[in-house]
DNA sequence: AATATTATTCCAAATTATGGAATTGTGAAA
DNA sequence: TTTCACAATTCCATAATTTGGAATAATATT
């Protein structure tokens, strides 16, 4: 328990305090935040004031005419929002599992980022439903044909016009140029592709060539970073660096859509985005296909498709 | 707001509810939990009861003589504890940054898991201190000599007896056999290495050979998984599968120590663990070394060393 | 069978949260 | 420049919630 200043009541419900603060951070006024939450404006003032005292710094600049979240407040709100959501999630019921069991080895290949973000949850779910399955997962960002020959199911971005495989489109995937709100506040947003030349950027390294992947834009335009703030062949590491404000990056939408929704990242250069690419799942059309491969394939299609 | 049954008061402070529940989950009685928290046993009863109503299922089996957290309760407690900690963390102040600025490219190589878990936070910190640095990070789990030639700073597990490099030991790293508590509850814990032959395990694939890395034990013993529940060359994916109870795995301590501390994972076969390996950082001893390399090296040493 | 201990329920008292009213501050309109 | 409308903030009386003592019920131990 903490002792407050005179005239500031002690508010022990920190969860509600955070919720009020986060709502205020995305409102144009405390009054608007209060309306959204169905509470009084005094409650918003009290919550923000108490949080500022706990944090030891201002989270909003404000007067009777407008409010402005501080940079510290902005960062704090992003983290708080996520953690608030995580706690709220604890109070939402989840559906039970069901299904019949499969067993044996299934070899699956996918891009790294998609693997971690979208595929692993589904594979874990699959494995719960079918405890006898042996999932052999290969994650890489490059098209390695020899690997394709050894897999049962693959997921790729691009196009698939090969009769050796049965392919099914999962979704269209966009390539977004994104950055953290903090970075944008500091350096501004690019108005055109050429602006990227003098903004901090990060880069994804092609493991095969050692060079940076070019960024793709509408009308077939490309731009390759030269000077970067951070670069790696590891897309996860690149994403971490972007989230932490090191630079702008071009990243597939499935990796960042949650972060965009949570306002941890912001899209820029939307008007020059390339046409969406296909995200598809495929399996070889050779010989009789084990039932488990067919069923896993169908399960992945149903769980990964975006309608 | 939710309408409770007769005689159950509405408790809006969900954070405290979770805290009470989590403390009870690791206590031998509600009275003990109450003592730990400095509240009355009635408060513990009320919090647990209300949480059970919100979740729609029993979290404790209990009578006046003892309490037993249910399996659902156990799982819920593990998640809740982490999220509770994450929220509590929001209310702890953090120290400001300081330092002088460096600029230019620094090429760093490290193992994937260590890179994500231990190294990225430090690199992000470095980049904040030195915004002009261009960090080029290569993450891989294999020793690739040609890559070593192109790097400025490397981090490796094993031994380093090469006079071409300046090496400094960061820590001893242990290889732990771990599994989720849920899995152990379901299948029991191995009493010896041979028990692994009929327990579910996951495996890390050597990208170069396509085969599974052997597990290492004391007195030079090795064991290689044959049938796995899950396998990947991607250590992150393997770790996710272990956390979700797919199988036992042998994983370096730096990847799992937080999860062990949080009781999300449990160590087994501790008595046959191999002697610790060296985790060391190194840089080439060729020609004059740019100051930025030297300073980054020293910074990494100071931040990554375990005392 | 008796006893000690703990979970649970009830209830009065204590504590906290709440919004109306008033005050203060600020930008826009006259 | 003055006036006005609006919102942040503070104060305070009231409402709502939380609290622990007391009582009850249940259970393992003696």
Automatic annotation (TrEMBL), chains A, B:
Keyword Lipoprotein: no
Tagged with keyword Heme: no
Domain HTH lysR-type: 18-70
Positions in coiled-coil regions: none
Any one Pfam family match given in the protein's UniProt record, by short name: HTH_1
InterPro entries xref list: LysR-type_TF_proteobact-type, LysR_HTH_N, LysR_subst-bd, WH-like_DNA-bd_sf, WH_DNA-bd_sf
Keywords linked to the UniProt accession: DNA-binding, Transcription, Transcription regulation
SUPFAM superfamilies for the chain: Periplasmic binding protein-like II, Winged helix' DNA-binding domain
GO biological process, one term: DNA-templated transcription
Signal peptide: none
PANTHER family associated with the record: HTH-TYPE TRANSCRIPTIONAL ACTIVATOR TTDR-RELATED (PTHR30537:SF5), HTH-TYPE TRANSCRIPTIONAL REGULATOR (PTHR30537)
Similarity annotation: Belongs to the LysR transcriptional regulatory family.
Name the record gives this protein: Transcriptional regulator, LysR family protein
Species name: Rheinheimera nanhaiensis E407-8
Phylogenetic placement of the source organism: Bacteria, Pseudomonadati, Pseudomonadota, Gammaproteobacteria, Chromatiales
């Amino acid at each position: 328990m903490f002792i407050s200043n005179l005239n500031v009541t002690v508010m022990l419900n920190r969860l509600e305090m955070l919720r009020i603060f986060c709502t205020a951070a995305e409102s144009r006024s405390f009054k608007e935040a209060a309306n959204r939450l169905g509470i009084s404006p005094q409650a918003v003032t009290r919550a923000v004031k108490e949080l500022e005292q706990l944090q030891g710094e201002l989270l909003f600049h404000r007067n009777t005419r407008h409010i402005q979240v501080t940079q510290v407040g902005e960062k704090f709100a992003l983290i708080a929002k996520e953690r608030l959501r995580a706690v709220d999630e604890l109070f939402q019921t989840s559906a039970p599992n069901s299904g019949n069991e499969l067993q044996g080895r299934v070899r699956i290949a996918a891009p790294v980022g998609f693997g971690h973000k979208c595929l692993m949850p589904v594979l874990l779910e699959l494995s719960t439903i079918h405890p006898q399955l042996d999932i052999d997962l290969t994650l890489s960002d490059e098209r390695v044909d020899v690997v394709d020959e050894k897999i049962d199911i693959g997921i790729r971005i691009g196009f698939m016009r090969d009769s050796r495989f049965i392919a099914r489109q999962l979704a269209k995937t966009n390539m977004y140029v994104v950055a953290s709100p903090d970075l944008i506040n500091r350096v501004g947003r690019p108005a055109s592709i050429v602006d990227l030349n003098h903004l901090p950027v990060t880069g994804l390294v092609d493991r095969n060539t050692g060079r940076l992947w070019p960024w793709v834009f509408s009308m077939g335009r490309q731009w390759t970073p030269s000077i970067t703030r951070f670069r790696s062949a590891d897309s996860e590491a690149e994403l971490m660096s972007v989230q932490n404000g090191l630079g702008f990056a071009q990243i597939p939408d499935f990796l960042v859509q949650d972060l965009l929704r949570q306002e941890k990242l912001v899209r820029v250069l939307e008007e020059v985005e390339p046409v969406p690419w296909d995200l598809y799942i495929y399996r070889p059309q050779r010989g009789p296909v084990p039932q488990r491969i067919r069923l896993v394939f169908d399960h992945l299609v149903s769980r990964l498709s975006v309608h």
